[in-house]
Amino acid sequence: MRLWLIVQIVTALLAVSAIAGAGSEPDMQAQIQDIVTAELAPTTTATDPGGLAAAVYAGGRLAFFNYGFADDAAKRPITPDTRFNLASLRKIFEATLVALGTGRGELRLDDPVSKYLPELRGDYISRVTIGELVTHTSGLLLPTDHPPWPDQTFSRDQFIAMLNAWTPHAGEQPGKQRIYSHAGYVLLQLVLERRYGMPIGVLIDNRILKPLGMTSTFIPERGEDNRAVMTPQIMQRVVQGYSDQGVPIGPPGNQQSYYDFAGTGQMFSSARDLGIFLRACLDGAVIDPDLRAALEMTERESFRVDDKFGQAMAWEHVRLDGVTVVDKPGGLNNASAYLGLVPARKLGIVLLANRGEYPHEIARYRILPALARL
Questions:
Q1: What is residue 328's three-state secondary structure?
Q2: How far is CA 89 from the centre of its chain?
Q3: What CA–CA distances, in Å, run from 258 to 153, 161, 268, 274?
Q4: Core vs surface per residue 301-337: b (16+ CB within 10 A) or e
Q5: Of residues 83, 74, 95, the one with CA closest to residue 227
Q6: pTM score, two decimals?
Q7: Residue 98 φ/ψ, nearest 5 degrees
Q8: Residue 283 confidence (pLDDT) above 70
Q9: Which residues pair with 140 in a beta bridge?
Q10: Are the CB atoms for 71 and 368 separated by under 8 Å?
């Protein structure tokens, strides 16, 4: 218990120091500190499993908030450099690849996926376009997209066969509805790999991560034990994942995937690296103008779901009282991740937790609106 208290006190002091030392407007920075701490600290007490790393970008500055442990048994504390499984936050990076390719004339949103994967010959799938995959408007909803989650694995050939055989169940049509589809983004990965002739991890690294200076973000290979293949140095900074009840799930670096082909493992990153990404999305901190334009393109709403919600390229739009939040949650049963922006106010937040079902809605509905009102 004493170590836990020391970790929390040091973390809070570091966050205050980072904000207070950043320059002007100390009162506003103190308010930001108070809002974020008041909301996050109660969700990561000594009795909660794992921990939380958060990064907040506001007023042109980044601040980090760290709670709990990367590994409860080893009492290894969370830091801004701890690596977490990003789960579906990876979709933002694949969407950025699509936007980059569109801006550079390398592909088109209205290209049918069968243009790049001619093995897709089914009546429905052959009409689906890249733009529909990236905005979740393809209408695809495979059994692997929703509970009960399958126990068996599926090879690439089996995945293609499922897509060729798939028919809509309720009259869906490509481009006419928003249905969140994990399989759609697995297919998007295959399209991008075929178009550029290289693995998705290399594409993301060369076209997004290196230009931004994100050196702690990567898509590792998946080992036979479902653990990401990483160096011992990196493994020392990777979290142990827990269920929402505190039960350890898998080894540190655990990857979960029922698609058993290269590149379908999850993506790992740190709060510090995603803070760089926040700054790039909000303040244009990108040297390459093509990448800046691609990031802006991914954030634009392309499909209106209802009065409150809209869909962009991977990102989601939530219209609240005078505030539009552009965000993306992600989660597995042993990991939770969230990235949220308020572009109009140039502020954003990253949440990374090594437990399932972390309540990211706190950031969407409480933290970001509160910060936007400052």
A1: strand
A2: 1
A3: 4, 15, 18, 27
A4: bbbeeeeeebbbbbbbbbeeeebbbbbbbbbbbbbbb
A5: 83
A6: 0.92
A7: -65, -45
A8: yes
A9: none
A10: no
